Amino acid sequence: MQGLDLSVLVPELILLTLGMLLLLLELVVKKKVYIAVVALAGVLLAFFSLYTVNGSYGVMFQSTVYSYVFKVIFLINLCLTILLSIRYLEIQDSSHGEYYSLLVFSTVGMMFMVSAGNLIVLYLGLELMALSTYILAGFIRHEKRSTEAALKYFLMGAFSTAIILYGISLVYGTTGTMDIEKIGYYIHTNGLGSNPLLLIAVVLFIVSFSFKIAAVPFHMWAPDVYEGAPTSVTAFMSVGPKAAGFAVFVRVLLTVFPILASHWSTLIIGIAVLTMLVGNLMALAQSSVKRMLAYSSIAHAGYVLLGLIPRSAEGVLGVMNYLFIYTFMNIGAFSVLILLTTEDFKGENLKDFEGLAKTHPLTAAIMLVFMFSLTGIPPTGGFIGKFSIFMSLINAQHQWLAILAILFSVISAFYYLRVVMYMYMRQPQEGQAVIQLNTSIALRLAMGITLVMTLMLGMMPQRLIDSMRHMFTLS
Amino acid sequence: MALVNRRQEGLIKGIALVVSVFTMLLTIPLLRGFNKGTAELQFVEKYEWIKSWNIQYYLGIDGISILMVLLSALTAILCVLISWNTVKDKVKEFFIALVLVEGAMIGVFCSMDLFLFYIFWEAMLIPMYLIVGVWGGSNRIYAAIKFFLYTLVGSVLMLIGLIILYVHGNTFELTKLMTLQIPYNLQLLLFWLFFAAFAVKVPMFPVHTWLPDAHTEAPTAGSVVLAAILIKMGAYGFLRFSLPLFPQASLALTPAMLTLSAIAIVYGGLICMVQSDFKRLIAYSSVSHMGFVTLGIFSLNMNGVEGGLLQMVNHGVVTGALFLCIGIVYDRTHTRQITDYGGLASVMPIYSAFFIVFTFASIGLPGTNGFIGEFLIILGGFAKSPLAAIVSCSGIIIGAIYMLWLYQRVFFTEINEKIKGLKDVNALEIAILLPLLVLVFWIGVYPETFISMINTSVTALIDRVHGRAVRDSLTMSEAIKNLSHLSNLK
After folding, report:
1. A361 and B6 in contact (C-beta within 8 Å)?
2. What is the pLDDT of residue B143?
3. Tens of pLDDT along B192-201?
4. Interface of B with A (CB under 8 A)
5. What pLDDT does residue B100 have?
6. Of the four, A44, B130, B202, B217, which is 20 to 30 A from A28 by CA?
7. B45 by DSSP, 3-state: which?
8. What are phi and psi of B59, to 5 degrees?
9. A122 inside domain
10. Given a cut of 60, is residue B486 above it in pLDDT?
11. Domain for residue A301, yes or no?
12. Mean pLDDT score, B109-116
């Protein structure tokens, strides 16, 4: 074993310290806004200390280009969520300092997941992330829906963790090691391509990760949890844990089990198609925008899963491009929902969007951009994300899968456009008080960032795509 | 424009006008510097865009696109003007959408990189959807979503085709893709994928059903843009991409395309006869007229393609003008039912004079532009398939029937009580219609001005379609020869 290089761990250490600091601050600081500010500053510090060069802390923790990209996504997600939360929590009367430290801990968990060199570290990261989000989902204590969401999430999550543990133990039993690369090597050299125990393990891994990314048929928890959790937490959950789930999904399948690909790729195709189908069709039937976004995020998981099927670097790049862009547009859409929320108004139903273009033209226009981006219409970022996934698919001779996926995205146009239709083509309801907007500056900042990024990534995606590819050809 | 305060409606309109006029002015040096003698691209602009996907920001025009660019610029000005007083709700958004549409239209006609082309092609959908859906008639929401979904299905299939092409040739650049040898079966698949997008836009039978709804419900400016430019994008797509990229597939599928065109001509015409809604009638007539355009294009000979291109311009001018005319009376009466009119000729004499000219042009009377276009198309069509040409000729007669009958019912007969005392066209409206009137006669009397611009490019295109096919079959027979040599050796 080489010498231990602590510098690789700096961002994680900063965040851990930050998380504990926030817990302490909670005791002394009265005004919760300051806690959020400290949290933000800490996250930015961690962001700048992210390590772009390969390095590892023993064999347990590896920092690679791959983990770097995902960590960027996690930290952006964390930053935006903090900005969204400040005012929202006050409105919900649930402003507690722990909230921010839980967000931070959850993100640290995700970062360990993507950097794990060992299945145990991966498992620990997963647990840290999951436990923190269970609590976050139930954070509005006086709201029944929120508590219900937390309980559901916890039960389902615990179940899926048990499954992954079983998978890990099977792998350990067959190969005798927990080290991710060694397992892959062992399977390769000993020709265990059709070892029944390993096959079971792969299935267990897929099932468990499918739970995490809410892929059909393991998605049942998602709509309820997404709807019940505080909206800011929903935004957080629909991006962060999902991206982390994808990160380990890709890593485990492509580095540990590449030889078994002929077995698992059929399974993944099935899950992806089913996910797109169910996600899109169910989203059609929703009258609550928040729940619609929950189903739509299920559907998006289906598209991202397709990036696994080519088993190529291009496919992985596609997954990362997609998730990066998705972060902005999805949080953006949720931020509009939060903007509409005030003490006595929910702003979650489709009806609440009626005539919004008349009363709040700017907000409506911003929502319009996010809706079109989620549909995948150029010149917005969503198109670039879909495009890169489809390109990798077609490059791997999966034209029909691409055609199928793209037709699903036409279905999705219908429900995204319905929001636009309500905003622009209906009149505000008579006699209803004009909707007051949330006045938080931080929220506006988050909306501004997501809007600019969604448009920028659509019109000038070269920076993102070229730099991602560049990093990968270097490593 | 978004920065302007929404109360300053005049300013917003002003900016929209300035932008569109400025665009028009920009096309003047284009016109003067345009070299008629070459089929090469001109005024090329090319920058690296997304390096790792080999995508460029690559613009250029040639004989096929120049007329469409001019037409787009002109239409945009007219649309701004016609909406000046008629759009009263959400003025700011309307003009922003209109200017965005104009930008995307011109982008579509100039893009020489397939990726860029797709971006413009799709980006156009968003403002157009809003124009139909927000400022349209009573059934606008249905019409808007129908329009959006139809076109989206078509375009995403094209997107797949585009990516397949990219995987095959590792570039999105049209000029480079043209040098590729694409196997026949792949050509067929790609042709159908691109066809899905273009046929919906044109619209060809049987995917035309979005058109009457969208055209009828859209506000006047929206109908004009749809009729004059948007549906031309489909025909342009055939000329720009399908024919040169998949020549063998195009040749092989000609019979199918000609049949669809002939059906569209006759079927569209027959439906026009039973319409009770003024605007819907003109909308259906577009189906019929665009049938002529595709007929011309798929005759794959000089006359046919030139006629098709010219007819694209003609149809843009004439149908655009007719929609403007309808918009003018609709603003006064707020009804589109033919039975609500009658005797308009004595109430609005100047208006009816304009209308009769456009009616004649639509029918294709000699001296107007419609005649030149349809004549060339039928000449071309006859050379390819006499049957299709003969069937299409009947379409002209049907066209005369429904247009003249419409004119008779609206402008002659007894004066309808409801329209008594309507004011005739004002100066602004005359100013809008006049340039189109001039174009009708200009193309009708001296089409040489326009044909000379497109001639060289069309020749090159036709040579390409046929030449490539001949050369490929040669190499095929050579290959067979070689094979038999090999077997002899054994």
Report:
1. yes
2. 86
3. 889 888 988 8
4. 6, 48-53, 90, 92-93, 118-119, 122-123, 125-126, 129-130, 133-134, 140-141, 144-145, 148-149, 152-153, 156-157, 159-160, 163-164, 166-167
5. 83
6. A44
7. strand
8. -115, 155
9. yes
10. no
11. yes
12. 85
**Residue whose C-alpha is closest to residue B220's, from B73, B92, B80, B352:** B80
Nearest to B93 by CA among A27, A327, A425, A173: A425
What are the tens digits of pLDDT across the range A252-272? Answer: 888 888 888 888 888 899 999
**Residue A1 falls inside a structural domain:** no
**Cα separation of A145 and A141, whole Å?**
9
What is the band of B475 on the pLDDT scale with cuts at 50, 70, 90? very low
Alpha-carbon span B14 to B84, nearest angstrom: 9
Its domain, for residue A350, covers 6-474
A461 touches chain B (CB under 8 A): yes
Task: Name the nearest CA neighbour of A329 among A284, A366, A286.
Answer: A366
Which residue in the set A372, A407, A424 is minimally distant from B134, CB to CB? Answer: A424
Nearest in space to B178 (alpha carbons), one of B68, B50, B62: B62
Judge whether A59 lies within some domain: yes
Q: How far apart are CA B211 and CA B445, in angstroms?
A: 31
Is A379 in Cβ contact with B148 (below 8 Å)? Answer: no
pLDDT over 80 (residue B52):
no
Summarised one tens digit per residue, pLDDT across range A451-465 is 988 888 888 887 777
Give the residue with greater pLDDT, B175 vs B268. Answer: B268
pLDDT of residue B5: 44
Domain span at residue B213?
A: 9-489
| Cβ–Cβ gap A394/B53 under 8 Å | no
Residues pairing with A409 in the sheet: none
* Contact check, Cβ <8 Å, A425/B133: yes
Number of domains in chain A: 1
| Reduced DSSP (H G I as helix, E B as strand, rest coil) percent helix, strand, coil of chain B, to 5 | 80, 5, 15
Q: Could you give the ipTM of this predicted complex?
A: 0.83
Output B484-489 pairs: Cβ under 8 A, ≥24 positions apart: none
